[in-house]
Structures are given as structure tokens and as C-alpha cells.
Design a protein that fits this description.
The complex is a heterodimer. Chain A is of the alpha/beta class. Helices cover about 70% and strands about 5% of the residues of chain A. In chain A, helix 10 runs antiparallel to helix 12. In chain B, strand 1 and strand 2 form a beta hairpin. The chains are: A alpha/beta, B alpha/beta.
């Protein structure tokens, strides 16, 4: 299939005026050699060193192109070290491309004192010669190939700590910007973007209702069942109502709803704002004399701070409906009894504690989601990274805040 | 044995997006070893046509034969075989944002050849150098590159396998004139000395007037003119006339052509 015959090559190039026609790929090697030529000549190695009085000549033959480069490099490194290379003979090449030229030149580099001036290329076709020259022009930079160093354990820990610190400091700083933005809004209330706020409220609040209802209903159901199984043993089925009502409105409803909103809206904030940064929309807003704070940040912040307590209230109600259903079916507590007990067991304080936590959770989710979106670096990958990070940070901070609230309320005796 | 030296045959391609007709029977043939430019006003579907040629977007009607394969009636295996034999550069580079420049360029080499380590990386460096990127840019991530550098990295990736056919979508837009002229030399080298066939979408009059063998003008959904630049410039169409007259306005009509 491949031709290593110099004779056939001469035939092929004999009639060709270089650069005058574009009819063919000059280095085509398939199907252009007639079989009789091939059968007469034994295969010639792709590279051979021939020494005579003046010095050594490196004879190249065959197809020196990308698919064979691995084999060619091996052949070159297997050559005996010539005393002094004075010439390269490219007359028997059937194919030559930049990959082949690179392999040849890198071999030359390894020979002491050898380059294209000392080892003169001979019998190369005009095309091959030009390829050789072009590659030689790039050779300086090709020489050094250093691999990326992977950092050690301590370095990795150090970098991660510094990054975490920068992240937190950045959040605090961003909170400051938001406070400044709020102050401006107080003095210039007409700058509030009502339309944008309404759109965000719909997105963050109303559209989240179905999933909040579904999740809190099911959790209320499960919670009532688990409590009921235990309470029934002691004949204290009625206290299931206390457990569901207080547990859900104080702890679980705010926590669950905050996690849902962090996953839904926090992630959406990051992805939306990140994409807008990538397409330079945020820059366009700034250049048009609008403030990203007014147009993008504050409507989202308000929407989430308003919507989250409302959603928590929905969760409070729906989880008790779930508990009521389970109490009726499994524990034999009719809804009237459930409601009666609910009124006695649930203090208004418990509900208020749950609702009061929600805006704080919302503030954290908003600051994290918005800031992570605004700090997307200019590539698509970083949108994904930041969105993931938003969800993780939001959920972790919601749980930490919840723990903090538990301690504080305990101390205050609320 | 192929009976023809046609690398690409586009035959009667029709493209409709809803009620809008972009192409209404576009046909042309590319011969091996040609450097052909595709020009046309905004919205004439140059990039769309490229996407149809490389198999990304199915035309409403018509056939595309690339390297002897009917792109829209080929099996998955045939298609993937043909995909190794051409390179494509997208308008905005389309670099993989999770990989640095060197690895972006290495992707086709790693996927389609057995080259590794000591053979692979010098070759990658060579491609990056040929595309005109400064030393040291190979370790950069795409997000750290300027628009022009991203373009050059994309060209390097399209060249990686030194394929038989290369499609370039606006390769010199956003490049400074010096780099753009170096690019012209590079494509000429690829075509003349390596026998690559190149189809490029361009608005760069310098590229058109100095290095391109042939120009195909797309207008009103058809091929309006097809031939060497000098012939196309004589076309009486108003758009073609005003397109090339920009050059004569700036150069005072005394521009010098020739490679």
C-alpha cells in the first residue's frame, strides 16, 4: 500500500510545476503507485544514515505524515549516532507534513551542532522544503514542554482556605453594597422597579407554591405517622398534634422551604445573572446609565425576602393538613379533635419564631445567589461551578443559621 | 477509485426556518486543493450553510456530499469516519472552557491518533505556533484569552490533524491586520504545500483579494456569483458592486493585488 520507491516518486513529481495547479493533494500516497515498481524494490526504511567521505547523510523515505509519526520517531531514535550530519536527503519521500517535519527537526535538535544550515536538505520537493522551513521557524518554542505541576496537600489546603476567606469577605462586602443600595432607595423611592419586583415575586413566590405544598404536606404526613406510632404505645395519641404543629412551624417548615427556595431561586439567580454577565448584558445596563443594583439585585432581594415567609406560612398550614389526614386515618383522631388540640397546643410565639427566621434565611440565600451570579468569570464552565456553589452555600448557611437561632431562642426563652 | 476530485458537492440545498426561506437551491462544488471564500450580506445564511455541510443542521432539501459521503444519508459510522477528515473553526472559537489552550488543541489528536507524551505535545506546540499564538499562551484557559487569541486557538484546533478539508467561519474577524495577514500566509501554505482544501466565510477584503482562489457569493438564497475574485468583482449585481467598492474608496482605486 505504501510506496518506498524513489523511482515512482520521480515519475509522480516529474511533470508537476509546483504551485501552478491546485488539482491534487500533492502528497497523496494512496493508489498512486503502480504495483510493478513496488514489487521490484525491497522496502526502504523510513530513515537511514549513509556515510561517505564528507560526512553522513540522513536519507528519508516513504510517508512522513501524521498517521506514521509514532513509528518514524521510533525509527529515528533507533538510528546509530552519526559522526557529523552534513545532509538530509528527502528525494524518496512520498508524503511529508508538518508532523513529519517536526519529528525530523526534533531529531536534528538532539544531534550536537546539527541544524538545517549544517545538515543541508537535498532533493526535497519544493513543497516539502517549504514545510520543513515553516516548521523550523516554529521550532524554538516547541523545544520546551513542561507539564503542569500538581500542588501538594498543604498548598491545596492553603489555597482552599484563602479562597474560602475571600469568598466570605466578598459576601460581607456585597452585603454592604446592598445596604448602600437600600439607603439610596429610601431617599429615592421612585427608583424601585415595581415591574421587575412583581415578575420576581411571581417567579420566586407563586410558582414555588406547588412544590412547597407537596413537600410540606408529605413531611407533615410522615411526621404525624412516626410520632403516632410511638405515642400510641403510651396512649398519648393526642400529643401527635403538639409534635406536628410545634415542630413544623418552629423548625421544619422554615428549614424545608428555605432549602427549596435555595435550590429553586438561589440557583436561578446565579445562572441568570451569570449568563447576563457572560453576554455582557450587565455591562450594557451600566453603560446605559442604569444601575445593576436597582435593575437586577434589589428586585430579586425583595422578592425572596417577601416570598419566603409567605411560603413558610403556606408550609405551616399544609403540613398540619397532612398531619390531620394521618391522625384521622391511623390514629383515629377526627379533624375536629385535631383542630381543638391544635388551638390549645400551638402558641402564636411558635409560629412567629418560624416566620421570623424566614427573612433572615432569605437574605442569605439572596446575597449568596446574586453575588455568585455577579462574580461569574468569563466562561461557561464557571456558571455551572457558581450555581452548584450557590446551592451548597445557601443550604449550609440556612442550617447553620437555624442552629444559631435555636441557641438564641433557647437562651431568650422564647 | 474516485472518479472526480470534488471534495465537496453541495446540490440544491434549501433551508427554511418556519416561513422564512434562507437558501433556495444553493449548489456548488469544491475541488481538492482550493482555497474558496464564501461571502454574502448579513443573514444570507453563510454560517447556516457551513453547519449544513458539516452535519450539524439538516437542510430542508438538497444533498451535501463531503469527501464522497452523503452527509445527510450516511450511517453514524460513515459520518464519524468523515468527521476525522475535516476540521471546523466556529465563529466564536467554541473552545472547551474547561481545558487550557494546549489541551483544546490536543483533543482531536488524542481522540483520533495514538500519539502521546513526547510526540504529542511538541506537535500541539507547533500547531499553536502556526496559528500565531505567543509562547506561553498554551497554558491559559479560554476565559483568560482575548477575542483574537481565542480565534487563533480555535484555528490551531481546527488544524490539529491537518485534515483534508478545513472550514473556517470568519477566521480573521477581530484579528489585528498583522495577525490577519499572517493567517493569510498560513492558509496559503496549507493549501499549496500540504494540499488542504479550505472553505472560509469571510468579510476580510484583504484575504479575498490576495489569497483566495475562488469566491462564492450567496444572495437571495442562491449562489449569485462563483469564480475567481476578479471575475466576481465584474458581476453587475448592486450588492457585489458596493461590497468591493468599499475597497476602491479607501485605496483610491490603486490597490495592488497578487500573492
Amino acid at each position: 500500500m505504501q510506496c518506498y520507491s524513489g523511482f515512482a516518486l520521480q515519475e509522480r513529481y516529474a511533470g508537476r510545476k509546483p504551485n501552478s495547479d491546485n488539482s491534487g493533494r500533492p502528497l497523496e500516497h494512496t493508489g498512486t503507485v503502480n504495483a510493478s515498481t513496488l514489487s521490484h524494490s525491497p522496502p526502504i526504511p523510513p530513515a537511514a544514515v549513509v556515510a561517505d567521505g564528507a560526512g553522513a547523510t540522513l536519507r528519508l523515505a516513504g510517508d512522513w505524515r501524521l498517521p506514521h509519526v509514532e513509528r518514524l520517531s521510533a525509527a529515528l531514535s533507533a538510528l546509530p549516532r552519526p559522526a557529523r550530519l552534513v545532509a538530509l536527503d528527502g528525494g524518496a519521500l512520498t508524503g511529508f507534513d508538518t508532523a513529519g517535519a517536526l519529528a525530523l527537526l526534533r531529531y536534528l535538535q538532539q544531534q550536537p551542532g546539527a541544524d538545517l544550515r549544517s545538515a543541508v536538505p537535498r532533493n526535497f520537493s519544493q513543497h516539502h522544503r517549504r514545510i520543513l522551513d515553516v516548521v523550523a521557524g516554529q521550532l524554538v518554542r516547541v523545544g520546551s514542554v513542561e507539564q503542569a505541576r500538581s500542588p501538594g496537600v498543604f498548598e491545596a489546603i492553603g489555597r482552599a482556605s484563602a479562597a474560602l476567606w475571600n469568598l466570605l469577605a466578598g459576601h460581607v462586602q456585597f452585603l454592604g453594597y446592598i445596604a448602600a443600595g437600600l439607603a439610596t432607595l429610601v431617599t429615592h423611592p421612585q427608583r424601585l422597579r415595581v415591574k421587575e419586583l412583581a415578575a420576581q415575586l411571581e417567579q420566586v413566590g407563586i410558582r414555588a407554591i406547588p412544590v412547597v405544598v407537596l413537600v410540606t404536606f408529605l413531611i407533615g404526613l410522615v411526621f404525624a405517622y412516626l410520632l403516632g406510632v410511638q405515642a400510641e404505645r403510651y396512649g398519648a395519641s393526642l400529643f401527635v398534634v403538639d409534635g406536628v404543629a410545634i415542630g413544623m412551624s418552629r423548625e421544619f417548615s422554615p428549614l424545608l422551604v428555605a432549602v427549596i427556595v435555595a435550590g429553586r431561586s438561589g440557583a436561578a439567580f446565579t445562572a441568570q445573572l451569570g449568563t447576563m454577565r457572560l453576554t455582557e448584558e450587565t455591562d450594557a445596563i451600566r453603560v446605559l446609565g442604569l444601575s445593576p443594583m436597582d435593575v437586577l439585585v434589589l428586585p430579586r432581594l425583595f422578592a425572596i425576602v417577601v416570598a419566603l415567609p409567605l411560603l413558610v406560612f403556606v408550609g405551616d398550614v399544609v403540613s398540619n393538613l397532612g398531619g390531620m389526614l394521618m391522625a384521622d386515618r391511623v390514629l383515629g383522631l377526627v379533624p375536629a379533635t385535631y383542630l381543638d388540640r391544635l388551638q390549645a397546643a400551638l402558641r402564636l410565639n411558635d409560629v412567629i419564631v418560624g416566620l421570623a427566621k424566614a427573612p433572615v434565611f432569605a437574605l442569605f440565600i439572596a446575597v449568596i445567589g446574586i453575588r455568585m451570579g455577579m462574580t461569574v468569570s468569563s466562561d461557561t464552565r464557571s456558571i455551572g461551578i457558581n450555581t452548584t456553589s450557590t446551592v451548597v452555600q445557601s443550604i449550609v448557611s440556612v442550617i447553620l443559621l437555624d442552629a444559631l437561632f435555636a441557641v438564641v431562642f433557647q437562651k431568650l426563652g422564647i | 477509485m474516485p472518479t472526480t476530485d470534488a471534495v465537496l458537492e453541495v446540490d440544491g440545498v434549501v433551508t427554511r426556518f418556519g416561513a422564512q426561506t434562507i437558501h433556495n437551491g444553493v449548489s456548488f462544488t469544491l475541488q481538492r486543493g482550493q482555497l474558496v471564500a464564501l461571502i454574502g450580506g448579513s443573514g444570507t445564511g453563510k454560517s447556516v450553510l457551513l453547519r449544513e455541510i458539516v452535519g450539524l443542521l439538516r437542510p430542508s432539501a438538497g444533498t451535501v456530499r463531503l469527501l464522497g459521503t452523503d452527509i445527510w444519508n450516511a450511517s453514524a459510522a460513515e459520518l464519524s469516519a468523515v468527521r476525522r477528515r475535516f476540521g471546523m473553526m466556529f465563529q466564536d472559537g467554541a473552545l472547551f472552557s474547561s481545558l487550557d489552550v494546549a489541551h483544546n488543541v490536543a483533543v482531536p489528536l488524542i481522540e483520533h491518533t495514538d500519539l502521546r507524551g513526547e510526540v504529542l505535545w511538541p506537535l500541539v506546540q507547533l500547531r499553536i505556533g502556526l496559528a500565531g499564538l505567543e509562547p506561553g499562551s498554551d497554558r491559559k484557559m479560554p476565559s483568560e484569552l482575548s477575542g483574537g487569541m481565542r480565534k487563533r486557538a480555535a484555528i490551531a484546533r481546527a488544524l490539529a490533524l491537518e485534515p483534508e478539508v478545513i472550514f473556517l467561519d470568519e477566521p480573521t474577524s477581530g484579528l489585528d491586520p498583522i495577525t490577519a495577514r499572517a493567517f493569510d500566509k498560513l492558509v496559503r501554505f496549507l493549501v499549496d504545500d500540504l494540499g488542504v482544501t479550505i472553505l472560509l466565510v469571510t468579510h476580510d477584503l484583504d484575504t479575498l483579494l490576495t489569497v483566495v482562489d475562488r469566491v462564492i457569493v450567496l444572495a437571495k438564497g442562491k449562489v449569485l456569483a462563483d469564480g475567481p475574485v476578479r471575475e466576481v468583482m465584474q458581476t453587475s449585481d448592486a450588492w457585489v458592486q458596493s461590497y468591493f467598492s468599499v475597497r476602491t474608496m479607501i485605496g483610491g482605486g490603486s490597490e495592488t493585488h497578487g500573492t
